[in-house]
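hiii so um. not sure if this is the right channel but i have a protein structure encoded as tokens and i wanna go backwards to a sequence. like what aa goes where. can anyone help
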């Protein structure tokens, strides 16, 4: 996939003489060194190991015939009075047959609008040629020279103007490049035409006055610059603007040579538009060959329904017709839409001998013919069917004959043909003799075709393809069939291949693109041995087919419509035909169906998109979709990846009503298709998934000892924080053994020092607490507890407070009283039904003897609304602490040992589990001490905290740290940000804060809400250059993208890019890491990689080791495993109701199975790895970085592998600009993706295939269900973490109210 890139050496010609200074010499040496290792070292494409290669079926049919012999066309006849050039024919008819009609154009109702005679055509073309050469620019500097390319921009409905422009260019010897009329500046088709105009060097466009008026303009009336177009000069060619040539001026009409005559555009499979150059001699020879093959005679009438700018419409209806003085009646597409019978009526009125049509025109005329009985089609000798090579043409021709045979249509006049932009006409059926038997048809096996071989279908009628021949190849041509890919090796007689042609009547090159030209126009076929069969160059036609009996040519598909799935080839046209055959009348609008393939997970996947009728019901649509799936499966033996229905008239169209396949595919991949119905079937069609991984038995043997340590030569992955060290001040440690004593000590020694400042949304202090005030408020609460609570030492007391200083006072009040505080987030008054049950649950689980709270909250607990969701009669004693009497407790409790419990820490994990963790006094002191050392906290410092104070590190920083270290904490409740986003950042600026702590949800609010307002904040004087560290507190993998955007956005306000860092804690150890440096393991952006950042420096006194969660053996450096911790501030255990000691022992006191079986470790339940980095730590050793990857509880077990939801979610969020947030979970082995849609609802179904693609590509998983919901549906807890289990429960209980649910089949 990637080639290794060799380093660029220095130019070898630098002599190294003694005079060159050593500095320059060093510089040269550094230049010689490769800048980076080659790409291959960073990323190896492991598709070979991943992809399950389907085994070849031994019964696959293989070609058995002999090698094909080139087929020769009949010789090109010699005609005595043949003109030397096409312009000469026009000159001749203009002079000798001036009154003879050349072209009749119709108005929109199908009535003749004007008739152009050969005399008028000649004189007007002459005028135009004279004007182009002599009247644009000056004599000294003419704008056009012979050989320049000129764009022709005329609508299909104005053939006369186009004819004059085309022949005017030929007479002026400039090269016409007919193109479509651009519809808008952004019009997809016209963007690609810009590429064509650029490659052909076009800078002048001819158009009609009417067309010019209709082009999009700028404000000041100039024609807009179309996207991707070169600068254009526009010239209007209506007669009144043309100058009559002077008497002495004559056009130069040389004998046809190999110079380019005109350029015809061609759209490739990739959507690029290229110009096929046709030389003057090719144009003349092609007209001669068509005249001979179709037996045209002078003065015939011809009805042309095709586009006269290109292909058959141009070759027959504009060029060959003038050659033979034929009268052409042009029936434009717009007329056909309004009146589908118009061409049949024209044949009848003009007794036309030849009609040029597509299958669609046959079909429309047949549908409209119900009431017409007076048309007579007996004059037709040739009904040329331009797309007669398509699989559905057979039935169209048969049905049309059925209806019109009674009106004089003869069966032998049908002349299907095969054409290609490169080779022009490849083959055409000659009109049969009256009563002669009609040519036989080939009935082929679809299975055989998909393997590229021809097998006559005998068994199953359904899986057969009936093809009609397209006659013999053109006079004077030579044809071979070669393999479509790889070297042009000749095929066997029973093998399908690409038709290649050698002829003087074909295109000569892709104009301005020599590289692509060589592979298409200069192909020399080779035989089985690889030797060239001659020196004659052939042109690839892009048509796939074979030669049948009697040298008849059969075409079964086009190269650009070829879909190769698991090594088998399917033609897009065949799939369209199958889909059309499934009674689409109720569902599909005007038969508009697009088929293409997209590459997902190392193979092509088939997508079908159809326009849905406005009146189709949901029921009809789904029935049709499921029947199409079955039909394609049974007929073509291939699975569909995606089937989408879009509203009528929304697929991008070509000017003649066809569907632009490439644009449709682009819209599908960009999420701009806006389907109204979609069905994805990845489970049935993705057959190359890797085999699920088998679980290996988990036994610890001697080998794992060796692997762990010696054999791999890896060090065991462990990392250690610095020593806690001896405390300098013995007096301090005595005071600080218990936090309650620390507060009393501070109240005596430094009573007026302000410990806490609480701010409101305006950033104004609403409450402050000095050491003495906090101590006194704690005492009041202690006295009340002792009087009213009826509590025993060691009882649990729930603290139910909004974030603030009351909460802190209540906490120390409990410590003073010898009871165990449990902080609980208060219920949300607007959402009691969802939040109150959690409060009730914690109160019940903790067996709380009493609740301390505020008056407003007490009223809520006893309110009628509360009674609706919980039993309010059974609350324990509720004490409101708002207006307490000034009392001092008789004594303050002092715990007998430091191992006694200080508080319980309850929280709800993201998996929806409620866990309560016991924290002892010893653990609290060491934790506070580690934080003090790590963050360098002392009494003269200020920190700002914008966190929820109910559990984990948030609680420790809010309630404990200041009392221990004596620094001042400025408290900002996160909910204040909802009414004033800038309050946190302006506080940092105003107080010149060095250290601040926040949560990811706070950071996200600021990033999303203030991102666009940095200029405004700057003018208000907001300056963040004071911030040294901004630490995000979380129990999850660091959110790299969010941290980076935050740093980048607020860099303008002076925020140092190194300030933002993360902390990581888990239930068993509330703080493991604080602060960090960032490192990366792979080259950025390597496919299938996730960017991680280090989770912070490990706190003093902490040891971390990485362990295999199954074997409990230590793992090596850079191996992923569970993070285990050993530290003095580990929690003492889970607080459980039934005292499940086994669970507790497993989590809090675990030993390794080998290595160091003595130490007691606590399991964090998180996966991560440790990597030794190049950085040095304070002691001069290399720094061991801890990376947290995710929680073990959260991991999804799918296909025997472990996946982290966050990784899949990151991929999903990248899939489309309108995915705001996403969450994943599993349901009966199916992966469910819930995506929040931030865009308009019409984009909802665009997300389904994109989400499925990205998860398949990046994680090799098939998504089972995609649920599209409104923003804000995915529940998020107070720490900003997704509650995936709650979401899963809501999904299973059908409570999500989704916009759309897609069940992938």
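sure thing!! here u go:
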């Amino acid at each position: 996939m990637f080639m290794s890139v060799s380093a660029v050496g220095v130019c070898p010609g630098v002599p190294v003489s003694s005079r060159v200074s050593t500095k320059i010499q060093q510089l040269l040496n550094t230049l010689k060194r490769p800048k980076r290792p080659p790409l291959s070292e960073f990323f190896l494409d492991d598709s070979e190991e991943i992809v399950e290669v389907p085994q070849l079926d031994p019964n696959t049919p293989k070609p058995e015939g002999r090698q094909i012999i080139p087929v020769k066309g009949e010789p090109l006849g010699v005609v005595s009075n043949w003109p030397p050039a096409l312009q000469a024919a026009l000159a001749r008819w203009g002079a000798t047959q001036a009154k003879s009609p050349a072209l009749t154009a119709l108005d929109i109702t199908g009535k003749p609008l004007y008739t152009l005679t050969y005399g008028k055509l000649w004189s007007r073309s002459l005028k135009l040629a004279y004007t182009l050469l002599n009247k644009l620019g000056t004599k000294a500097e003419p704008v056009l020279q012979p050989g320049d390319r000129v764009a022709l921009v005329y609508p299909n409905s104005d053939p006369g103007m186009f004819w004059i422009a085309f022949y005017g260019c030929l007479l002026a010897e400039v090269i016409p490049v007919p193109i479509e009329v651009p519809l808008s500046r952004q019009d997809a088709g016209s963007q690609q035409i810009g590429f064509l105009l650029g490659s052909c060097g076009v800078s002048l466009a001819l158009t009609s006055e009417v067309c010019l008026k209709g082009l999009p303009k700028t404000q000041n009336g100039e024609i807009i610059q179309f996207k991707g177009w070169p600068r254009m000069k526009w010239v209007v060619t209506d007669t009144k603007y043309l100058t009559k040539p002077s008497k002495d001026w004559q056009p130069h009409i040389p004998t046809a040579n190999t110079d380019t005559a005109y350029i015809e555009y061609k759209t490739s499979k990739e959507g690029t538009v290229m110009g096929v150059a046709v030389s003057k001699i090719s144009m003349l020879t092609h007209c001669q060959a068509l005249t001979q093959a179709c037996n045209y005679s002078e003065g015939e009438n011809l009805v042309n329904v095709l586009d006269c700018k290109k292909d058959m419409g141009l070759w027959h209806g504009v060029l060959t017709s003038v050659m033979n003085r034929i009268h052409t009646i042009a029936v434009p597409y717009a007329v056909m839409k309004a009146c589908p019978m118009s061409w049949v009526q024209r044949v009848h009125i003009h007794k036309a001998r030849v009609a040029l049509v597509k299958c669609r025109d046959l079909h429309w005329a047949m549908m409209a013919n119900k009431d017409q009985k007076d048309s007579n089609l007996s004059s037709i000798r040739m009904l040329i069917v331009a797309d007669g090579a398509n699989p559905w043409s057979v039935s169209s021709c048969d049905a049309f004959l059925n209806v019109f045979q009674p009106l004089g249509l003869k069966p032998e006049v049908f002349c299907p043909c095969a054409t290609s932009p490169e080779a022009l006409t490849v083959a055409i059926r000659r009109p049969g003799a009256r009563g002669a038997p009609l040519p036989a048809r080939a009935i082929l096996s679809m299975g055989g075709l998909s393997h590229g071989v021809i097998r006559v279908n005998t068994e199953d009628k359904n899986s057969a393809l009936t093809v009609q021949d397209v006659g013999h190849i053109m006079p004077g041509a030579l044809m071979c069939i070669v393999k479509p890919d790889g070297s042009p090796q000749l095929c066997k007689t029973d093998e399908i291949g690409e038709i290649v042609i050698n002829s003087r009547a074909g295109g000569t090159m892709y104009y301005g693109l020599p590289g692509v030209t060589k592979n298409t126009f200069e192909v020399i076929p080779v035989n089985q041995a690889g030797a060239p069969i001659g020196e004659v160059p052939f042109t690839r036609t892009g048509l796939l087919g074979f030669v049948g009996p009697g040298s008849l040519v059969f075409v079964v598909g086009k190269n650009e419509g070829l879909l190769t799935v698991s090594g088998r080839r399917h033609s897009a046209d065949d799939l369209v035909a199958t889909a059309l055959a499934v009674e689409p009348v109720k569902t599909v609008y005007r038969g508009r169906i697009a088929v293409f393939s997209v590459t997902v997970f190392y193979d092509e996947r088939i997508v079908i998109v159809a326009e849905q009728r406005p009146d189709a019901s949901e029921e009809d649509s789904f029935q049709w979709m499921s029947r199409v799936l079955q039909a394609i499966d049974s007929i073509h033996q291939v699975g569909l990846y995606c089937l989408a229905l879009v509203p009528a008239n929304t697929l991008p169209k070509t000017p003649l009503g066809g569907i632009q396949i490439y644009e449709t595919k682009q819209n599908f991949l960009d999420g701009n298709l806006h389907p109204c119905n979609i069905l994805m079937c990845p489970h049935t069609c993705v057959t190359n998934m890797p085999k699920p991984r088998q679980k290996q038995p988990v036994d610890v043997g001697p080998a794992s000892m060796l692997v762990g340590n010696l054999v791999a030569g890896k060090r065991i992955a462990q990392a250690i924080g610095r020593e806690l060290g001896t405390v300098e001040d013995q007096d301090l440690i005595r005071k600080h053994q218990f936090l309650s004593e620390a507060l009393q000590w501070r109240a005596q020694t430094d009573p007026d020092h302000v410990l806490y400042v609480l701010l409101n949304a305006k950033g104004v202090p609403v409450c402050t607490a000095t050491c003495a005030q906090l101590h006194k408020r704690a005492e009041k609460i202690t006295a009340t507890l002792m009087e009213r609570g009826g509590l025993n030492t060691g009882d649990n007391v729930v603290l139910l407070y909004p974030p603030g200083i009351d909460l802190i006072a209540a906490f120390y009040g409990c410590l003073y009283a010898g009871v165990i505080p449990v902080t609980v987030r208060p219920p949300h008054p607007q959402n009691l039904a969802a939040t109150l049950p959690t409060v009730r649950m914690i109160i019940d689980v903790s067996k709380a003897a009493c609740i301390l709270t505020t008056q407003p909250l007490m009223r809520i607990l006893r309110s009628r609304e509360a009674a609706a969701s919980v039993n309010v009669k059974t609350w324990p004693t509720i004490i409101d602490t708002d207006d307490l009497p000034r009392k001092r407790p008789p004594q303050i409790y002092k715990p007998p040992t430091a191992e006694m419990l200080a508080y319980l820490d309850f929280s709800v994990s993201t998996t929806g589990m409620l866990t309560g963790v016991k924290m002892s006094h010893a653990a609290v002191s060491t934790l506070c001490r580690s934080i003090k050392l790590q963050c360098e906290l002392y009494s003269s410092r200020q920190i700002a905290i914008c966190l929820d104070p109910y559990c984990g590190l948030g609680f420790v920083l809010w309630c404990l740290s200041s009392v221990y270290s004596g620094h001042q904490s400025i408290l900002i409740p996160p909910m204040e940000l909802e009414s004033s986003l800038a309050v946190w950042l302006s506080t940092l600026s105003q107080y010149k804060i060095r250290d601040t702590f926040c949560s990811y949800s706070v950071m996200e609010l600021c990033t999303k809400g203030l991102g666009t307002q940095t200029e405004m904040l700057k003018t208000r004087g907001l300056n963040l250059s004071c911030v040294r560290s901004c630490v995000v507190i979380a129990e999850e993998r660091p959110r790299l993208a969010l941290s980076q955007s935050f740093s980048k956005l607020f860099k303008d306000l002076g925020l140092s890019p190194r300030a933002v860092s993360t902390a990581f804690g888990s239930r068993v150890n509330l703080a493991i890491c604080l602060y960090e440096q960032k490192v990366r393991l792979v080259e950025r952006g390597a496919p299938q990689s996730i960017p991680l950042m280090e989770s912070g420096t490990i706190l003093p006194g902490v040891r971390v080791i990485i362990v295999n969660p199954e074997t409990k053996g230590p793992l090596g450096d850079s191996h992923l495993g569970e993070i285990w911790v050993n530290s003095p501030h580990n929690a003492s255990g889970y607080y459980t109701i039934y005292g499940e000691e086994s669970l507790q022992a497993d989590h809090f006191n675990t030993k390794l199975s080998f290595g160091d079986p003595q130490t007691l470790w606590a399991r964090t339940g998180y996966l991560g790895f440790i990597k030794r980095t190049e950085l040095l730590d304070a002691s001069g050793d290399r720094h061991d970085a801890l990376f947290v990857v995710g929680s073990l509880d959260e991991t999804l077990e799918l296909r025997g592998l472990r996946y982290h939801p966050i990784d899949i979610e990151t991929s999903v969020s990248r899939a489309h600009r309108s995915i705001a947030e996403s969450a994943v979970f599993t349901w009966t082995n199916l992966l469910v993706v819930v995506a929040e849609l931030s865009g308009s609802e019409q984009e909802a179904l665009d997300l389904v295939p994109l989400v499925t693609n990205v998860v398949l590509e990046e994680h090799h998983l098939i998504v089972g269900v995609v649920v599209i919901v409104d923003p804000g549906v995915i529940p998020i807890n107070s720490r900003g973490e997704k509650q995936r289990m709650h979401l899963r429960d809501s999904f299973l209980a059908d409570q999500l109210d989704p916009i759309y649910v897609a069940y992938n089949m």
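oh and The mean pLDDT is 85.
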